[in-house]
Amino acid sequence: AGSSAMTGDFKGVRVIFLFLVHALLNTHCSADLTISINLLPRDYVDPREEEGFVCGTDKSGHLIAELNPSFIFDALDNTNDVTTAYKTTIFNVMGFSTMEEPVKMLEAKVSEIEEPALYSLLLVPHRAQCNSLSFEDAKDTGESYYPVFVGNAINFRTAIETFIAQAQSMKSIFNGHLPKLCGSKQIMEMQVVQARTTTLNLLFSFAFDHESPRSLNSDGWRVCKTSAETTSSISSSNFFDTIPTVSFEHTNENGHEGDGFAMLSILRTSEKTKKSVLLIQTELVNATEDDIVLYNGLVVFDINQEKLDILVQVKIDDVNDDNEYFRVSYEHISKPKGRRKKRADKGTATVKLQDQVPFSEHLKSLNKIRWTVIQVLTKQKAYWDTEELKGFSLEIISSQVIQLFKSFDPDKKNHDKNVQE
Prior knowledge:
Elements: H1 9-27, H2 69-76, E1 89-96, E2 102-104, E3 117-124, H3 134-141, E4 146-151, H4 153-166, E5 180-187, H5 190-203, H6 227-236, E6 240-241, E7 246-248, E8 252-256, E9 261-268, E10 275-284, E11 297-301, E12 307-313, E13 324-331, E14 346-354, H7 366-377, H8 394-408, H9 415-420
């Protein structure tokens, strides 16, 4: 700014710059004050305004999780649920000391056996808080909050190790500081965890994916700033079919509270060479938000997939929920401007909630048995290390299952039937 070569318009830039610095320093007396100045050519055109621009993608057109934070945080955010047990909790996971040593700050119990849940990890600035307002802070701030993982507790631990390994390379993205790692957790049955995880991973590439981790994408100018922008990008993508031909397998279904979810199936009859995306919405009839967790979001058919199960969380309580109803509907996601719109394909199904629990009151769900077996076989070792299971024969596993059924059904009235099933 002090160069004698600056003339014309640039002199005006220098005067305005010095005035702004003077005003800011007199208003914000802070050692951490940062002033960012962008000098742009007179004929500069914002690339976001160029025809054909699609936000939230890398150069190959794939949707990148950290470039779609608003959409992902909206999908994970259930902090305002009316039932405390079903609220999304956000907690500290990992930070760094002044000597840049990793400091474990994990505050949540991470156990699939006792408490299956959907987990996520997000990178935040080193001084940011990890609490129920973090998702809102991320949307208000508009930068430096990156979703990097979504999945179950097994892969949650692996993702933390990926963070420790990559943290030093992220300092330039966080103004020279090492980032902090926050986690989120929402209680749900394992089948629902799998459904939510599959949807998000079919839509987005997550940096800390346990199968193919990658470095963080910091192309900030490509970020989708709202969920609507991300939905528009999905519509524009060549990787998704957003107008598939589909229908509910059954338009009337029963849901059992003891399962922890109600399930409906959608059949796809159109081409299966691409992933297909639908918008799902739930509507209360005489059921209430004390009975279910409303799901309003996208679902995805994978390539070659003909049938997709839609899972809606049903809350387990001591209240009689017999003969309570809600509806589930699907429709095509809206098209971005500039494309010829086609008639939206819509469908609706009704779910009747019942208190009766199928299979066995003693067992609650087959999912819990599965994870208990893993715990037994690994002899209380780190249950997420599934390599431990490879040496066990079917006979050993079967004997363990029989012992479990005996413990759940001591009078053996249903022993033979349950073991067979």
